[in-house]
Amino acid sequence: MFTRRSLTGSSSSAIKSHNLRAILLILLHHAPVSRVRIAQLTGLSTTTVTNLIAELVSAGIVAEDGLEQVTAPRGVGRPRTALRLEPESRYAVGVHIDVGSVHVAVTDLFARPLCIQTLEHSLDQSAEDVLAATADLVTDTIRSCGVDPARVVGTGVGASGLVDPYTGINVLAPNLGWRDVPVRDWLAARLKLPVFVDNNVRAMALAEALFGAGKDVYVLAFVYARVGVGAGFVVGGELYRGGAGAGEIGHVTIMADDGEPCRCGNAGCLETLVSEPAIVRLARDIAAGDPRGILAAHLAQGDTSTINRIFDASRAGDAATRAMLEDRARYMGIGLANLVNTLSPELIILGGIFARGEDILFPVVTDTLRQRAFANLGESVRVQTPTFGRHSGVIGAGALALHAFFYEQAEGTT
Ligand SMILES: [Zn+2]
Q1: Residue 242 Cα, ligand 1 centroid: separation in angstroms?
Q2: How far, in Å, is the centroid of ligand 1 from the Cα of 24?
Q3: Distance from the CA of 179 to the center of ligand 1, in angstroms?
Q4: Of 93, 116, 264, 267, nearest to 194 (Cα)?
Q5: Quick one: average pLDDT of 39-68?
Q6: Do 241 and 263 sit in the same domain of this protein?
Q7: How many whole angstroms from 327 Cα to the centroid of ligand 1?
Q8: 28-42, 74-88, 310-324 — which one is most confidently predicted on average?
Q9: 272 CA distance to ligand 1 middle (Å)
């Protein structure tokens, strides 16, 4: 089980923090907006709004920006000063720890990346060495981006595997060879910044909910398929983490009998059917059986990744490859139908290799989802590719720090 933060009682600073959060979220989602409108939307008194806005303006976080267009009843009313967030008044750092590489971005308050740098690492390096190099890269990225370090609100880290967000420990990351790595404490000691650590797919889900396609969505699921298959859920602006780590959709059993063994120890898991290694293995079997075919010719060309060459062979008319990929999409559709029946999200973001093969895979995924989901649950869910494309990892990581800025406001903000 996760170690949970304890609940604290209400105090004046907790109330102020709560009110600041409400105002900042209105500014994030509804700006430009007047003080009066903020008061209406939050239910706070105009005096409270005016006082807190004054603090945010003096801290440079909120700017007055022209006039709000007001359509008043009976055609009367006077224009009001519109307010908006100043995007570069504060910054966040996002660190995406991927297998073989670490990506670091400095973002503005809207999670837009201003500078991105990458370092390669090998699986022979210890976790401590990788994190020490990561801390150096964060410091270098802040400096080379020309950003005042005092305006960086924190560093978010998205890591693969089982991550305890409350202790910042990467409990188990088989793809990295990590076990019980105290990511938060090691980085925080070197960076002297607040560090927020979570699973990388959960971080991507959070970014979509706060800054992407999920801004107006109450229940959002992000499913990411590459080497593994994982999911993150956001409900009402907050990550749903379950008792000990929700989102292991890759290990939902699809083939109850005769399934391929999975690295989790089970067999017939979704991951054994739709992950990148599974698809590459099936493609190599097809090419071996048809060495003069379109797929074999594409696999022999080396200018793009293997999975892209497989998609290209399908686009070029290789029927066996197309059929194999559509089978993968059908299995993913079954997995998503199970997810929809359990959670009923309004929006599913499907990323990783499925986004790269969107034209081939998505029609079959959505058809299967609609057929298999209970009653009309499948009709009411939208399925789309990630808003932030190949930057989903770093922007998601940055969103962990920005979530703390917007949602865990304390007096320290101003
Ligand atoms: Zn499994």
Answers
A1: 19
A2: 41
A3: 18
A4: 93
A5: 91
A6: yes
A7: 19
A8: 310-324
A9: 7
CB within 8 A of 15, min separation 6: which ones?
Answer: none
State in Å: Cα 276 to ligand 1 middle: 14
- Mark whether 319 and 366 lie in a shared domain: yes
Q: How many CB atoms lie within 10 A of CB 20?
A: 20
Measure the CA angle with vertex 385, ends 384 and 387; round to 5°: 110
Same domain, 229 and 142: no
Calculate how far, in angstroms, residue 140's C-alpha sits from the geometric centre of ligand 1.
39
For residue 147, pLDDT over 70 is answered with yes
Tell me how far the alpha carbon of residue 283 lies from the centroid of ligand 1, in angstroms.
21
347-352 sheet: strands from edge to edge: 238-240, 229-235, 219-225, 347-352, 382-384
CA distance 160 to 132: 18
251 CA to middle of ligand 1, Å?
4
Ligand 1 geometric centre to CA of 114 (Å): 38
Residue 379 contacts by C-beta under 8 Å, 6 or more apart in sequence? 370
The Å distance, Cα 245 to ligand 1 centre, comes to 15
Please tell me the distance between residue 391's alpha carbon and the centre of ligand 1 in angstroms: 27
Q: How far is the CA of 180 from the centre of ligand 1 (A)?
A: 21
Q: How far is the CA of 350 from the centre of ligand 1 (A)?
A: 19
Domain housing 151: 91-210+392-413
> CATH number, domain at 58?
1.10.10.10
**Partners of residue 94 on adjacent β-strands:** 105, 156
* Closest listed residue to residue 122, CA positions, set 103, 99, 138: 99
pTM for the full predicted model? 0.90
* 23 in any annotated domain: yes
pLDDT digits (tens, 9 = 90+) for 223-270: 999 989 999 999 998 899 888 778 999 999 999 999 999 988 999 999
348 C-alpha to ligand 1 centroid (Å): 21
Domains of the chain: total = 3
How many A from CA of 273 to the centre of ligand 1?
A: 10
Statement: residue 414 has pLDDT above 50: no
Q: Is the dihedral of CA 36, 42, 45, 49 positive or negative?
A: negative
Per-position b or e across 397-411, b if 16+ CB within 10 A of its CB: bbbbbbbbbbeebee
What letter would DSSP give residue 160?
Answer: S
